[in-house]
Amino acid sequence: MPRFPYPPLLSAELRLLELHPGLPDDRLTGTVFHRILSPEDGELPDFEALSYCWGDQSRPEQVKLATERPTPGEQSDQSSDSGHVDIGPNLASALRALRYRDCKRVLWCDSICINQQDTVEREGQVQRMADVYMFAERVIAWLGPATPWASMAMETVRQVGNRHFPQEADTPWLYQNMTPHASAPTTNRSGIEITYGEPIPFSQDQWHSFEKLLDLNWHRRLWTHQEIVFANQETSIVRLGEEEMPWARYKDAVAFICTYPWGPLTAILLDPARCTRNEFVFVYKVAAIDCAVKQHASWIDALAFTEKYDCSDDRDRLYALRGLLQPDIARCIRVDYTKSAKEIAASACVTHLEQRRNLDFLRLCNSTTSPTWAVDLQKPLSVFEVSSDAGARSAASARLIKPGVLEVAGLTCDEITRKPIDLPGSKSFENIKEYLETLLMAFRDLTGNDDFHRDDKCVDELITAMTYGDLWDFSALRTESPPSGLRIALETGRLLVQHWVTAMANGEDSFHTMFHPRYYPATACTRTRNGTLACVPLESRSGDIIVTLLGLRCNLVLRPQPQDGSYEVVGPCYHPGFSDGQAVLGDDFCGWERGWCNKRHHLVFWKEGEPLRLRDPRLDRVPLPFGYSEYNPVVYHIDTVTWTHKDEHEEYMENERIYDPRMSEHRLKERGVPIERFRLI
C-alpha cells in the first residue's frame, strides 16, 4: 500500500483522525479530515487530543488512512486517497487501547495529524500546539502500555486520591490519620532497621511501583509538560494500559505522595536520586498548572526550567516554550526546522534584543562555540540570577553587524589575573562535613590565610561572593523585617563560618548550613587585578576581562581575541565592586544606603529619618532629556519608577519605559563616561 497522500492544510485548519472501531488485534484504520480551529471566531471542532511520547521509532507499525472530503454544507461519507502512515509502537498501543469496539472516536495526535514529511507544515502546526491542547474537549495523557506493576501503581495513586482528596474537601493537602501498611518494610537493603519519622502507608512493592510510574517518559518530556498544562484539568484523563483515572485526581494524589515527608525512603527506593529528580519535575508541572499566570514574560527565564525535562531534539527546548510564553515574547522564537539549534538560539537572541532592548540572554551564556553570545541548547542550562543591576536601568546599545558578530556598548571594569577556584555545590558530596571541608579549604586558598575566620572583613567578602550579594544587608527587606533563613545577614554568616571552623577543629559531625554556592555558571571564585573577590565561570582564565554592558543586569567575563580585537563570551559573573551600576554612575550614593527590591526589580535607597527612595541619588544632578518625564505607577500595590516621552507613539516605547533615558549611550558619553564598543563573536 502506498504512503498516505496528505492534502495541504489551510492556515486556520488542523487535521483530525476519525479512529475506526475494532477489536484489540484488528488492524488500525481511520479517516483523516480537516476542520477549522479558530478560537477567535468561535470555530471549535469536537475532538480529544492525545498527549504521549513518540518513543522508539525503529520498529514502526502501519495505520491505514483515507481522506474525507465533505462538500460545502454537508458531511460526506465518501473516502478517497487511501494510504498508510508509519507510527511508533507507543502510539500504536495507545490507539489500540483507546479505540472503541462499536463506534468511531475523533482524536488529534501529532504523528498522524501533522504531515511529518512537510517541514513547512510542521513549523506552522508547532506554533498552534497550545491551541490544540487548550481547546480540545479533553486531553488523554497516555503514559504507556500495560506493565506488570501498572495496576498496583495506579491503585496506590487511587488509594491516596480517594482517601485524601474527597470531592467536598477544601484542603486536599491534609494528612488524615494514615497508618503503616502491614507489609511496610522494616529494614533497608543492608538489613539495618528502619525507624520512621512518620507512618509509611504503603508496602515496599507499592513504593517500587510508584517509583516506576513516576519514571515513565511521559512525566519527563518537555512537550507533554506544555500539553497537560494547557489541557482542561477537569475533563482530561490519564491512561496506563487499561488503567484509567481522572487527571485532576491523579495530579493531586501524585503530588501529595511526592511532597509529603514520609521518612527515610532512600532505604526503600530503587534509585533515590532519580526518583527525587522525577518528583521535582512532577511537582513543577503541578505548580505550572495551578499558577494563575501560565504564560511567562521571558523566554530566557522559562528556558532554564527545561533543563529538568527530556528533549529528543534540542531545538524543541525553545519551540516547546512558545505556548508557555506571552504572545509578543513567543514571536522571538521563530519555528524553523531547517536551522540548527545554535542558529535558532542566536536568532531568538537578536529578536529579543530588537523587541526588549536588553541583553538578558547573556545571562544564559554557556557556549564554547561561535557565536558565544548565544546559548548552547545542547549543554546544561542555567540562568544567572543576581539581586543587583550592573547596567543601572540602561537600555542596550547593541546591533548584529554581521552574522555571528554582535556589537555591544559597555565599559571594562576589571581583569582576571589568576586561575579561579571552584566552589562546588553541596549535592556533589556524600555528606555535609566533606562539603564544608572542601569549602573551607577553598576559603583559605582564596584569602591566603589559615585564620581568615578571625577577620570579619575577610569573612564578609567571602559571604558576599558566595551569595552573589543576595543578603539581608543589601536588600530592601532590611527596612521591613529582620534577617531570616531565606536571606541571611552578614552577621549570621560570620557566625556560621566560625562555627564550621570550630566544629571541624573539634572533630564534630553536626553542622548548621544556611547558604551554599548557587548552581549557576559563575560557581568559581578569584581575586581580580583590583583585588576584589569575584564569582566567575570556572572556565575563566588569566587575561579575561570583566565588563559592564548597557542593558545587562549582571557583569560579564569576556576573552580578548588578539588577532582581530573581538571578544568571546566566557559567561556571566558577579563582581561586588560593579554590581550596582558603579561602572557607569560611580560609587557615591550621597549618604544613602542601597538595597535590591525583589518586588520592584530595581534598587531602592534609604536613610535614617527619610522615607524609602526609589530614585537613584547618583542621578540627582542629571536632568531628564527634553520631552521626558518621570512617573510612579502602582502595579499590584507596588509603586515603582518609570519614564515616558511626550511624543510616545511607537509600540516599542512600552519597553522603553523601564529604562532611564539618562542612561543611553550617547548621553553617558556626553557626561564623560568612557563607553566602549565590544564585538562579541
UniProtKB/TrEMBL annotation:
Domain Heterokaryon incompatibility: 47-227
One Pfam family per UniProt: Het-6_barrel
Sequence segments annotated as region (Disordered): 62-86
Residues that span the membrane, as ranges: none
InterPro entries named in the record: HET, HetReg/Transcr_Mod
Composition-biased stretches (Polar residues): 73-82
PANTHER family: ANKYRIN REPEAT DOMAIN-CONTAINING PROTEIN 39 HOMOLOG-RELATED (PTHR24148), HETEROKARYON INCOMPATIBILITY DOMAIN-CONTAINING PROTEIN (PTHR24148:SF64)
Name by which UniProt lists this protein: Heterokaryon incompatibility protein het-6
Source organism (scientific name): Fusarium pseudoanthophilum
